[in-house]
């Protein structure tokens, strides 16, 4: 069975990664196995020119794995189209209880939006667009919304909501 997915979304520079770090740590403290997927709208590389892994990929390997006693990493070529998030989760995240993503604001996954007053007056999911997949907001200001609004530092409350909604 595919694990539930919750996407942490926000405008750039709002604190998605910081909140995600705290949520992962809290979920782990509660005994859950957590997967994390970071969306990158640009191109990225975990291979670095000159390293053996980069050389193998440059030679044409469609899938290149690096293994060690503690970790495994994969570079998988897939052309110029971004893989579907559902397929990615189904293929690579079967061994976790929940997947928390950073980004994927256009996906149909359930979302928590991070909001900081100094960054923007409007929300992504309750601004020009009304995203029906938004189920909570983490904010540094009081907001009147149709979904629960948590203090941006209330990791415990957000985890309680995630567990109740997706893991109970």
Attribute tags:
6-stranded parallel β-sheet; 168 residues; single chain; Rossmann fold; alpha/beta
How are the SSEs placed, and which strands pair?
Layout lengths: L4 E5 L6 H14 L4 E5 L13 H7 L4 E5 L4 E5 L8 H8 L5 E5 L8 E5 L18 E6 L9 E3 L3 H13 L1
Parallel strand pairs: 1-5, 1-6, 2-5, 6-7, 7-8
Antiparallel strand pairs: 3-4
Helix pairs in contact: 1-4
Structural overview:
Helix 1 (16-29) crosses helix 4. Helix content is 25%, strand content 23%. The chain is globular and about 55 Å long. It has 4 helices and 8 strands, in the order E-H-E-H-E-E-H-E-E-E-E-H. The protein has helices spanning 16-29, 52-58, 85-92, 155-167; strands at residues 5-9, 34-38, 63-67, 72-76, 98-102, 111-115, 134-139, 149-151. The strands form 2 sheets. A 6-stranded parallel β-sheet has the order 2-5-1-6-7-8, with helices on one face. A two-stranded antiparallel ribbon has the order 3-4.
């Amino acid at each position: 069975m595919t694990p539930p997915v919750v996407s942490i979304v926000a405008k750039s520079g709002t604190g998605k990664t910081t909140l995600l770090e705290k949520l992962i740590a809290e979920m782990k403290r509660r005994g859950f196995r957590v997967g994390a997927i970071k969306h990158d709208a640009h191109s990225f590389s975990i291979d670095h020119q000159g390293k053996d892994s980069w050389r193998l990929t440059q030679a044409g390997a469609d899938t290149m794995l690096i293994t060690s006693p503690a970790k495994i990493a994969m570079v998988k070529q897939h052309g110029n189209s971004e893989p579907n998030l559902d397929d990615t989760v189904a293929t690579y995240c079967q061994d976790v209880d929940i997947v928390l993503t950073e980004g994927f604001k256009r996906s149909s996954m359930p979302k928590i939006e991070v909001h900081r007053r100094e960054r923007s007056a409007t929300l992504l999911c309750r601004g020009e667009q009304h995203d029906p997949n938004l189920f909570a907001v983490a904010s540094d200001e009081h907001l009147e919304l149709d979904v629960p609004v948590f203090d941006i530092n209330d990791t415990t409350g957000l985890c309680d909501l995630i567990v109740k909604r997706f893991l109970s």
